[in-house]
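Write out the bound-state structure for phenylalanine.
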Amino acid sequence: MEKKRAQWGSKIGFILAAAGSAVGLGNIWKFPGRAYEGGGGCFMLIYLCMVVFLGAPLMLTELSVGRASQTNIVSAFKKLGHKGYSWVGWIGVGGAFVITCYYSHVGGWVLRYVFGYATESPKIYADSLGYFYEMLGRHADGTTAFPWAAILFAAVFMVVNAVVIIRGVESGIEKFNKIGMPALFLLLLVLLGRAVTLDGARPGIRYLLSLDWSKVTFNTFLSALGQAFYSLSIGMAIMITYGSYLPKTENIARNTGLVCAMDTLVAVLAGFIIVPAVFATLGEQQIGKGGGFAFVSLAKVFEQMPGGTFFGALFYLLLLFAALTSCMSLVEGIVAFLTEHFSWPRKGTTIAVCAVMFLIGCLYTCSQAAYPIKGIWFDAATGVSTPAFCDAMEFLTDRIMIPVCALGCCIFVGWVWKPESAVAEVEQNGVRFTLAKVYSLIIKYVAPLAILTILVMSFATGMTLS
Ligand code: PHE
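---
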């Protein structure tokens, strides 16, 4: 006897949860740096096109596969009559697993910084790099130790995730997002108000609104596309799983539009926080997009900003909400698969899988600065290399697993299950999907070609898409 499947309790609940998954660290610390690099307004325009023409169709595809099959990402293909495509699901769930290992640890560092700003900001300002390294287990004198601080906070972060997931789809994820997402928007607006009213913020705002096409290269397009997929949580177990909890009465096309719009809005607003704030304090050359930027350079911004310590704590709180709601969507994708595929109980499965991911994540954190743990990598540009374990994990997901899973979904829906089936799923319950023709063309031809280009280019040039 099959148990009754979980469902979202309300329309807004689903939208906030899906937007919560999409809005994450990628929006807040990667997007602004990429926007700066890609010429401000130009990048934002290109990004918008990527979201509209590729991201949204793919999200719609995943949601419709999920709702049509009413099951997790691996079983979805079998349920729709094409067991041979289950590998796409395995890659998706595998990608979600690897990402959670490190996303949860980075979430832990963010939590550490919320406390750091709230209680010991002078220490951060005095030596921001030293403070960051200290957390990761490297002391100022060059000696190293087990990174207790980072690991303990990561454990707390993971426990919060596990508790929410154990509570289930409606009383856990949905409830959390109904509070977390409005809080996130509020924090975003407060920080935006602070950033754009800083003395010297104007050139930053102008930069983001200007169209300087000289900074745009082929890589700008790839960077925008990679960012769009990552930001919309596409190519993992997530949107298929979240779609499977949608009632047939929901309009998937409209929901896709809303979620994409919210995700993009948050990214753009984050751009208008970070870029003007950095222009006003550090100078424009200092804008970056990696962890070093988010944890180290930004300290100087908050140090120089009036009320900076308060706004610093708020900023990391914003990141914390963003990271939590994204991370729980990853865990849900994995737990939904394990509990349905192997008929395991939800509570025990969540605890076990979170514990394993946390432990693997410890290697990620340890390999940052404390210990020389290496991974292995291969691409045409550098051949076989042994990057730090943490980098190898990110390469694996960003350059291979996410694009391959997204490509598999396109091929499956474009050529096997057929776009007409996805359209029929969208049109359940009397909904009219006016863009059905365009959607079919994109999913059959445009999206697979674009993803293939990302895959080939990142292999050929060894570039980082994260
Ligand atoms: N979309 C999230 C972000 O922008 C990242 C994420 C990736 C979340 C994969 C879940 C799954 O940070």
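---
The first strand starts at residue 377 and ends at 379.
The CA atoms of residues 172 and 311 lie 29 Å apart.
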